## 1
Amino acid sequence: MPQAPAAQAGRKPSRIQLRNRKRILEAALEVFSTHGYRGATLDQIAAEAGLSKPNILYYFDGKEEIHVTLLNQLLDAWLAPLHAIDPAGDPLDEILTYVRRKLAMSRDLPRESRLFANEILQGAPRMGPHLESVLKPLVDQTSMIIQGWIAAGRLSPVDPRHLLFSIWATTQHYADFEAQVGVLMGEVDVHAGASAHLEAMFGRLLRPNAAMG
């Protein structure tokens, strides 16, 4: 029976152990984003990583632990742009910067976006507690910031939560439906066009004089 990794035994993991763990997570990201949680197997992850299945189980208890580890890492990255919204900044600049950051994540992290989308589509069986304890307080806080800007006349009236949902939906579409977007858009720079379109759309929606045309 293999011994537990050094990190589990209270010792600092070696460079080889850190490298193999990263290798496994990278392979698992590819497998989960392609096949979803239910369709993914440890054999597929092992093959993608170029390691044996027992080697995978040396570092992780099983498929679920690998998946939860990836989701936890993803949630930290996913929430960083929301944390970066500055209550003291210019409201429209802050929102449009957030849109740009979310679109850049769709461009740079499409597999991570699909991993998260698959988890939510399944009812968030592994992420449910994190959505309640981590995401909801942050969205509540951000909504209060946006509502304060609206009350001060610095943004047009919108529902802050529906605004965030709209930003998530429009930016993450370019990752979650990447194959369809690629076929329909051809060889053009999709994300440059998307950025210009989304900034214009949300800018018109949120500028205080938008209702005046």
## 2
Amino acid sequence: MDCYNLTKMTWKEVEESLKTVTFAIIPIGAHEQHGPHMAESCDAVLAEKMAEKLGQKMYPHAWVTPTVNMGVSPHHMNFPGTISLQPDTLISILRDMIESLSHHGIKKILLLNSHGGNQSTLNVASMTLTKELNVDIYYAKTTASAKQTIGEYIKSPLFGHSCEREVSEALYLAPELVRLNQLEKGDIQELGRWKQLRPGKAIQGFYFYEEMTQNGCIGDATQASFELGQQIVEEALENLSKDLYSVLKINKDVYR
């Protein structure tokens, strides 16, 4: 066994793993439209795959929990099939999961998120549940730390949803998510209030995704590749594991 994934273990195996495990990774995704060329389970599947790979990097110190496969996605609701949670619903799910993990002795948690729409909710969850449950809760985006590869190879001025980055990650981690014969560039709307409300602007606010892109994606998925996905994912995993060993004060040479 090279990863303590709770979904694949018996309780006896879990009990044995507690001799070395010090924290848990909770993968968090979403169920929402991803344009004409990606399955709506994309974020949940990529979160799960990344969590398992990170669990391998952190073995034998980490549990990987079941995936929270829905998230905060109201901005995608006008595309058929999207299922969205309220922010307080997601926090309630995480509260129950973390309380259960704490009962088993796990007091440090990483929320590994693959959906940008969850980030503000996870910020609140980290702050409130850390105090409420007396545990240490951290959160991270799955591949946001792959800054070198993304900066070098992603050329679209606007990207981040069913784009060359995300499709590449899927081609490496879960190619079944991608419809290769239907890849499209984002159909970006030149006019609209979304330009004034985007993250990073002085004033931010809610807008529906179709106000920005008519086909539900941004960036240029036609430029995606397995090789780019591999480079992004592996750089992110290296950075995440390095930072986790440092933040959690784990000696990575022990048990290896």
